[in-house]
Amino acid sequence: TSLGVNEPDFSAMDNDGLGNGRLWRLIFGFVFSLSVNRCAGYILKDCRISNGNAICSANKLRAVPRGIPASVKTVDLAVNKIAAIRVGDFVNHTVLAQLDLKRNNISRIEKGAFAALRSLQKLNLNNNRLAQLGDFFEGLSNLTELRLTSNSITTVIPSSLKPLMNLTVLDLSFNKLRHLTNVHYAIQHLPNLRYLFIKKIDITIFRSWELTNITVGPAYLDLSQNNIDVFAISADVFQNLTWLNIGGAPRKRKLICEIGEGTGLKRLTTLDIGGLHLERKDAAALFRSVNFSLSTLRMNAMKRNLRELLNMSCTIPTLTQLQLRGNRLQLLDSTLLRLCSSVTELDVANNRMQNIFSDAFRALQGLKSLTLSQNRLSSVPPAVRNLTKLLELDLSFNNISSLGCDDFAELRKLRVLGLYRNYISTINLCVFKDLTNLQVLKLQTNRITKLNGVFTRYLPNLRQLKLDENRITTIEKGAFEGLRSLQNLSMQRNELQKLESGSFVGLTMLTDILLPSNQIEETEITAGVFNDLINLRRLNLLDNRIKYRSSSALPEAPFSRLSQLETLAMAGQHGRGRSQLPRNFLQGLSNLLIFDMRNAQIVSLHQDTFKHTPSLQKLDISSNELTDISPRMFDPIHNLQSLYISRTSLRSLDFLKEANLTKLEFLQARRNQYSVITVEQMASLPSLVYLDLQGNGFLCDCDNSWFLQWMNKTPTQVYDAYNFVCNYPLNLKGMKLLDLDIQSCSVDVGFIYYVSTTCAILLFQLTAFTYHFLRWQLAYAYHLLLARLYERKYRDRQPNCLYDAFVSFNAHDEDWVYRELLPKLEEEQGWRLCLHHRDFEPGKPIMDNITEAIYASRKTICVISRKYLESEWCSREIQVAGFRLFDEHKDVLILVFLEDIPIWELSPYYRMRKMVNKRTFLSWPRAAQCTELFWEKLRQALQSTDNADGELLLLTVEDKG
């Protein structure tokens, strides 16, 4: 999957604690995990996923592991300790095609355990402990291959295999079925069965009538290693049988063949009777039943009557392939094969032959393939020279030490010649002069030291040449000049030290050359050595001594002419000292796809190393001493899909943040020193499918909290994550990384969003509610606070009473004050009043003037009207007076209402409403008929004592308390 994720700027992030940087990383990790794939990621404890296959083998599992992705097509659970297969183990794997359970301890399979595997085609249960073939294959209607080799099966329930209507391959070998009826029960419901393996099931008698009711019957039947004493065919149940093996290990007891006339093996083409002891009459009956169909006969390890059996079998006119391995034919004379004129393929390997008569193959004039391997021949037998139609000749694993010019004379049609595993040290130029059609020559594992120009002529059609494991030290100029058609050259594990300029001249068709495990040094791969290999696709130089001391550019790049090269393998360069790679080493390799440079003791790579390889897809630089990698090195190889950087000296993957690796799918970084994996590193790899960090020592604290969360969310498979261990801090060393509790580290972004949004909505609703219903109370509270602050400021600085009363009024009511109040109180009654327009100190803050005036007066007269209630300064005056009243417990406040104001209109002024409800007040509108009483009550109020707790009933014009 290729997914694009833009990399954000993390440069300003805070890295201390769980600050803003950490929060943003967690938020980005959450968003990143959603942007990559909506499916949850997975980390498998005991399996790894590779190319859609789940590989869980050899992990000491005792049960089928949970969490294997349902999308995999193959599951390998071989070589574990699973004892039972239970219902639910594979309930989600409806697309699974192959299931391998071999080499476990399975003794029980629950009914319905495979019911969900409707797409399964291959099931391997070999080497387990099943004792019975029961009804546990329900649902496997598409199964085509079932293997049950090496269990302990003794009984078969008749309906056990009935659901397997499409089964074509059944292997019950190496069980203890003992009776053929058990086999009958197993196959009677399998109309499509074609391959039946019942090797060594401990049957001693085979009677075909015991397999009646089989509709079609198998085409391939293996009964080998069963020690059968009686082989009887009386019913025509094998009408489609083409391949039959009733042989096996050599045995002394005779096999009795009972084959009825007109029945049996009319279509059999391949018969293996190796190791059997057959008398003449039994062999005659057997060969008679296949007289007009048999083409391949194997009589290996026949210690008795071999000549007699050959005389009978070679009269079958259709016989073309004859295998006689392991018969101890130390001498092959002219009489043994005299009747085998129709044979075209003869295999007499592993017979300890030392000599072959020159006319031993005289009767086999049509022979096309001859295998003489694993004998004791000291030279090429002259008998092969007359086989003019021979296409393949195998002389491997003999004692041949030299080759003569006439050894292969007249073999002009020969295409494949095998001479490996001999003692050949020298090859003369004339040896292959007649092999003009030879295509494959195998000379590996001999003692050849020099080529002596043997490949400069002849062999014009040779395509494959194997010279592995010889002692060749030098490839001379033009050594392969005559091999114009050669495509594959292999010279592994020689002693090559010198490659002369022009060593490969003439090999213009060569596509693959293998030169690993030699002693080639960097001075031997100079420009000109490989220039002639213009069609080369794969070059292998593993395990040589190619080392450079500097990254400086070479005068001429060694591979500059190899524009078609796709794979360059140079891993394992050994020798003294460290190495570098010249910056133009890969110049000319514009189509290079794979570059392997692991374990070459490289200490650095120049940022221009891959400048000339824009098509590179796989890069392996593991097991080198790299301490730093420049991100710019990856700029030219933006198509890179696989990167291997295991066992280096890198301490961090930070280079990934700036590297252009958006198409990277596979990253292997085992056994390095990576302690923390960050969101920035993983965000730079949006297409990553497989991540291998096995063997690193991780830091187990909040720095890796994001990585732990990411592993559980990402679709990237993190291989072996369950075995990641802590290396720091020391008190947690050895603990599994996945066991780290990161609850205190993580921030639930979704929960934060939820709480923030909820609080914002509630705050908005509260604000709206408060404004609508409590705006006046809030305004009053605000002014109350200010008044309280001013009151505290001036309480300890109270001046002496300079006035009898401070008059608080609104400018709209000043006419009443000047016309009615002042004349009565000052002129008639003689009180000294404080008025703001007259007595406030100019230039002084208004609030200071108000507070000082109130505390400098014995009383405060508030002239209240609706305009008064709306005035900010009037509200503050009454508030300061109210504080003095309630905080000093003095009767200092006189309320005079110029208008009738209902109590509910005073609600925003909570303290005023409280005073109106508890205390007396004077109302001017209600005193319209008796104003003198009003003024008298006001005078008494001015004269009253400072007892704030008493009720002034005498002043009441109208009592509302």
From TrEMBL:
SUPFAM superfamilies: L domain-like, RNI-like, Toll/Interleukin receptor TIR domain. One of its GO terms (cellular component) is plasma membrane. Residues 801-942 form the TIR domain. It is a single-pass type I membrane protein. Its main location: membrane. Keywords: Glycoprotein, Immunity, Inflammatory response, Innate immunity, Leucine-rich repeat, Membrane, Receptor, Repeat, Signal, Transmembrane, Transmembrane helix. Pfam families: LRR_8, TIR. It is found in: Membrane. GO terms for biological process: inflammatory response; innate immune response; pattern recognition receptor signaling pathway; response to bacterium. GO terms for molecular function: signaling receptor activity. InterPro entries: Cys-rich_flank_reg_C, Leu-rich_rpt, Leu-rich_rpt_typical-subtyp, LRR_dom_sf, TIR_dom, Toll_tir_struct_dom_sf. Belongs to the Toll-like receptor family. This is Toll-like receptor 22.
